[in-house]
Amino acid sequence: HCEGPKAGDPQLLAGQQLAFQLRANPTVKRGGKRLGLLVESEQRTWLKRKLTAAGAELLGCQIRDGGLQHSRRKPAQTHLAVLFTGQLQVGDPILLLAAVRGGVGPAKGYGFGMLSLTPIG
Question: What values do phi and psi take at 98, rounded to 5?
Fold first, then answer.
């Protein structure tokens, strides 16, 4: 369940346009395994789906390959890092605030998924 705003939370309004940045590990589950999405069009589709679920509409973005990140945890894992930057429009402020607080996508325990929002203008 989503809680209301807390001190320090961004003020989000339906229809508001914001700049965003997200360092993520875009993946899809196939055959019980999580596979990294390597093609930019698949990464963009993944981002649109995640933002829609988070109460926002993707207006435009740039996608930058962040390389592979190797974990020191046992067993060792390798994650594909992708940096998304762009603009979005708030649809559901409560859902979007939950995504800012809880992160977006898999591998949050490995430093991925933090959604940063900045007012435009």
Answer: -60, -35
Contact assessment for residue 82 and residue 26, using Cβ atoms and an 8 Å cutoff: yes
Name the DSSP class of 83: E
How far, in Å, CA of 80 to CA of 90, rounded?
A: 27
What distances in angstroms separate CA 48 from CA 57, 60, 72, 92, 99, one per listed residue? 7, 10, 31, 15, 14
Q: What whole-number distance in Å separates Cα of residue 25 and Cα of residue 27?
A: 6
Q: How far is C-alpha 73 from the chain's CA centre?
A: 23
The H or E element spanning position 79 is: strand 78-90
97 exposure class (CB count in 10 Å sphere: 0-12, 13-18, 19+): buried
pTM: 0.85
Neighbours of 16 (CB within 10 A): 18
Say which amino acid occupies 59. L
- pLDDT tens digits, 57-98: 999 999 998 877 777 766 777 888 899 999 999 999 999 999
